[in-house]
Amino acid sequence: MQVRIEELKKSFAEALALANSQEALEALRIEYLGKKGYVAELMQQLRFAEDKKAAGQLINSLKTYAEGEIEKATEQLRAAAIAAKVRSAKKYNPTLRFAEEQGSYHPITLATREVEEVFISMGFTIENYDEIVDDYKCFEALNIPKHHPARDMQDTYYLDNGQLLKTHTSAAQNYIMKKYGAPLRAIFPGRCFRNESTDACHENTFFQLEGMMIDENISISNLIYFMKTMLSEVFHRDVKVRLRPGFFPFVEPGFELDISCEICGGEGCPSCKNSGWLELCPCGMIHPNVLREGGIDTEKYSGFAFGLGLTRLAMMKYGVKDIRDFNSGNLKALSQFKSI
Ligand code: FA5
């Protein structure tokens, strides 16, 4: 039996050296290890052997040897196939990097940066704030108690734990007042959410950029000065705006600052809901209740706040007719901003 097994090992090794595909290896496995293979045949003969134990060990050594070699060869063939694929793949060429298609900044990013630059030059800091906030920050700290009718204008998406997606950047006012105290000058852009139907000038997810200035002797004329400066710097041209009274529980007095629609030139179109004007930047003098809630001494300090509709500003600045294009992910629309 020993001689026979040595012969089989030798013939196996010779056949293995020639097996250069997974199919050839499988055929070899069946020939030696299959149901009707050499190992099975030797097992049949085991009962005739004088020393069954020694013969059994020899057969087993052939079986283990064949199994191990086939496994090794299978792995080698697989590795060789991967290496061949890698070799034939298109090579990465660092010198081609700039010739290939490049992305571009989103128009909201471009508009945010531009407004930020204007306010930085006027001594404002930029703050970041959460998108998920609690009821206190979004409403109560802003003089909007539970069941106040002003909440109807700002329905949003609620989490199971009672938190909500912020409806306006004003939700950061209380946090920033407590963080810095007075005097302060800060702007804070951010994504806002509202549960409302969408149209050419309303989205359920949009950006605002809030600003706050608190100091001694701040008045409406300071507010108007900063609003005018921001708009002339951002548009680099004269834009027609109008200021009218507006109600927000967190300012007193409050104003609506509208921009004449840049899409239709004030004639009326879907982008401005046919009114010729677009609500852009409500603002006002911060209500004393809100200042006190933020820990500010109202005997000494007063301040203004504004909530710029950043996505609408981008619409007007870049001539985008439909606000929904900004969130569409439509590269045909968005790639036009590459050159800006
Ligand atoms: C507010 O959100 C107030 N927090 C703004 C404010 C801040 C007032 C500080 C006073 C002082 P309003 O809901 O009007 O107000 O939204 C402000 C601006 O955000 C709007 O003028 C508009 O430009 C933009 N805006 C509001 N809702 C949407 C929407 N669904 N889609 C796109 N832009 C919107």
Under CATH, the homologous superfamily of the largest domain reads: Bira Bifunctional Protein, Domain 2
Mean pLDDT: 93
Give the domain tally: 2
Give start-end ranges of low-pLDDT stretches. Answer: none
In CATH, what is the class of the largest domain?
A: Alpha Beta
Helical percentage? 40-55%
Q: What is the CATH topology descriptor of the largest domain?
A: BirA Bifunctional Protein, domain 2
Shape-level CATH architecture of the largest domain: 2-Layer Sandwich
| SS elements, strand count | 10
What Rg do the Cα atoms give? 37 Å
Would you list the SSEs in sequence order as H and E? HHHHHEEHEHEEHEEEEHEHH
> How would you sum up the major sheet?
8 strands, mixed
Structural class: alpha+beta
User: What is the count of helical runs?
Assistant: 11
Strand content: 15-25%
> What sort of overall outline do the alpha carbons produce when their principal axes are compared?
elongated
Distance N to C terminus: 85 Å
Bound ligands, named by name, code or SMILES: adenosine-5'-[phenylalaninyl-phosphate]
How does this structure look, described?
- The structure is a single chain.
- With 340 residues, the protein is α+β, with helices and mostly antiparallel strands.
- It has two domains: 2-88, no CATH class; 107-334, 2-Layer Sandwich (BirA Bifunctional Protein, domain 2), CATH 3.30.930.
- It has helices at 2-18, 22-33, 38-45, 52-88, 107-121, 135-138, 173-180, 220-235, 288-293, 310-318, 331-334; strands at 125-126, 132-133, 164-165, 184-193, 205-215, 241-245, 251-260, 277-279, 283-286, 302-309.
- The strands form two sheets. Strands 1, 4, 5, 6, 7, 8, 9 and 10 form an eight-stranded mixed β-sheet that branches. It has a two-stranded antiparallel ribbon with strand order 2-3.
- Strand 6 and strand 7 (251-260) form a beta hairpin.
